[in-house]
Amino acid sequence: MPVLVMKFGGTSVATLDRIRRAAKRVGVEVAKGYDVIVIVSAMSGKTNELVGWVNEISPLYDAREYDAVVSSGENITAGLMALTLQEMNVPARSWQGWQVPLMTNSAHSSARIEEIPTDNLNAKFGEGMRVAVVAGFQGISPEGRITTLGRGGSDTTAVAFAAAFGAERCDIYTDVDGVYTTDPRISSKARKLDKIAFEEMLELASLGAKVLQTRSVELAMRYNVRLRVLSSFEEQSDDAGTLVCAEEEIMESNVVSGIAYSRDEAKMTLISVADRPGIAAAIFGPLSEAGVNVDMIIQNIAEEGRTDMTFSCPTDQVKRAEKALEEAKENGDINYHDLVADTDVAKISAVGIGMRSQSGVAAKMFKTLSDEGVNIKVIATSEIKISVLVDRKYMELAVQALHDAFELDKAA
Amino acid sequence: MPVLVMKFGGTSVATLDRIRRAAKRVGVEVAKGYDVIVIVSAMSGKTNELVGWVNEISPLYDAREYDAVVSSGENITAGLMALTLQEMNVPARSWQGWQVPLMTNSAHSSARIEEIPTDNLNAKFGEGMRVAVVAGFQGISPEGRITTLGRGGSDTTAVAFAAAFGAERCDIYTDVDGVYTTDPRISSKARKLDKIAFEEMLELASLGAKVLQTRSVELAMRYNVRLRVLSSFEEQSDDAGTLVCAEEEIMESNVVSGIAYSRDEAKMTLISVADRPGIAAAIFGPLSEAGVNVDMIIQNIAEEGRTDMTFSCPTDQVKRAEKALEEAKENGDINYHDLVADTDVAKISAVGIGMRSQSGVAAKMFKTLSDEGVNIKVIATSEIKISVLVDRKYMELAVQALHDAFELDKAA
Q1: Boundaries of each ACT domain copy (chains A, B) (predicted)?
Q2: CB contact under 8 A, B69 and A54
Q3: What CATH number has the domain spanning B3-175?
Q4: A79, B16: Cβ pair inside 8 Å?
Q5: Which residue, of B202, B284, B365, B398, has the fewest CB within 10 Å?
Q6: Nearest-by-Cβ selection for B76 from A50, A82, A146
Q7: pTM of the shown model
Q8: Taking the domains of chain A in order of start, what are their residue ranges?
């Protein structure tokens, strides 16, 4: 029988009533003839409670024990969901990570999935099980210890199962009803997309649209797993939500698919850096080692052997970045006059695979912002994305103006 | 290094502070040179919450899923305890049932332990681990599913580990500070026993002294595991609590060691049963099949081919017993005039291994009750126990009078 993967996040299984509602959705798919693999998160709030306990006991906790504790929430939901399905006469069985087994490496708290053997589940499907309810977010290391995949790891679990079992689709049930052209809280004209390409979703996810974990989209793209994002709080038709899929499945699309933003970017400038070959490595090496996620980088033209170097990073990593750079200066690895951090900026990005074949997107973006009197502080581009840093006070204005300029309220 | 098993019940690990207190006790034993196996229950209330959810979803739940859900509480405590010990610089590691593995049969929700291979834990002890924190109450079936041992199963887990690892002792930390000659709430003269024989503890446990699960005492007796019951809420010396051990370790003891009682007994009488060979089997067979735990049985002298048959069973099984007997009557398997249930009785028992060698205990018991005007309704005896059923209103009086008569407030 064809296999379908369905994933329910924390808010979708927060109470027994919601678990029942989710189970009904599963029942609908079983009735259509699918063997279903359901991936569940912990009931919302549970994981935070467990994490809180661990932190209270041991701020510098052993990640192996952290994983053993925080993975419990998903186990509970998996058992409760299996019971709920059985009560609806759907043959179901719960599976903890080690029972599948979902094999990972030993990087506790942020483990990578290495393999999902299909034998155990397929044997049970062969015996009449119609639904395997799998605890998300967790696996087992080569040492036989429980691992977790990092926060939001249940999305990744779902995609990995879809890939391993050649599922027809991977439906991600969540508390929003799809992927929008921009945040509806910022622009009332935001429109739900029927389809979006993996690459676009990746850019949007990494830019702060928190619908899907970035890793899960990467994995879906690599294995060409069709992902559907939809709401668990509404009655759903077969074409509800947003399908995240390969470009080839998308016949027509706007040049720009969405406008994303991130409030948590900071702009840092090293003033008057002694310019020499290898200076970029000398700056960004220490930042990388300190765990600073540098996003955009620009370097001014050098004058008299000195240059300014500007980069952006998440606001909460500014302190760490400053420390790393000051140490590098003390060690004599780099030389600069001053280090200036501007935490009052926001990043706005236009994303769309259409940019590959159509020029003029950047020009239109810059002109739109200029017309609104929004000053651009940093620009970065990729094949399907243009990002700018602007003063944070212009963020909403910039998003709305760009959404209008690229006519995202209208379907392609 | 010698091995010690320490078990902490739900109230002893109910909060992070209590877990810390328990961990300190473990640290004391590690400092003495023991390798310690700690068995933990779920934080008190947790298991009931999980059981409640399962019952709400599915009153006739699948026991496999019940086990998967309710075993989660112990996993959380095990991880938290391991983290707490690590924070105290004690090398500790948590172990879930399947990791040990604690191998059971497939009788979900009331599984029997079949084997505890010592290789995994011993390998880790060899690498420097000083404490293995094991989630109590759970194991793994031959099919690779999680099993649980039934309520209170963590005591049994602890004794089984002590047997498998040849532990010097198995310390059961609980919310009482030992085993008493009777319930201190009923007699202010109740005295804590320093030692008690397995057989006595078994009788007391099955008679309602809820300090230890009966099964754990049976197991301790079979493998001669020295069990110590003590409080996790007091500073403890080396000879604190009560040691449950083989008779041979007890030099001197009173003839009677304790007076137990049970409020939840009912007396049922089948009036005018047609007496014939096999009639007892015809009555008690159906009761057994219906899951009724018959305790005491007496049969009056038959007159004109008819007799009265009286037995006792737990009060909450009366309805089930009535149904089973009425069905047997309808089927023609037995024949009686009337069935009378008296739920207003209590069982009082005097227990002591000294009874084996000393006569007159029963006579003294009957005279004491008679002197107090307490009428005895049913009598049953075993080698080390005499039990009587009396009207419930006399229960406290009977316990106090017997405690005085056998001078249990004085040590042997």
Answers
A1: 268-348, 350-412
A2: no
A3: 3.40.1160.10
A4: no
A5: B284
A6: A50
A7: 0.83
A8: 3-175
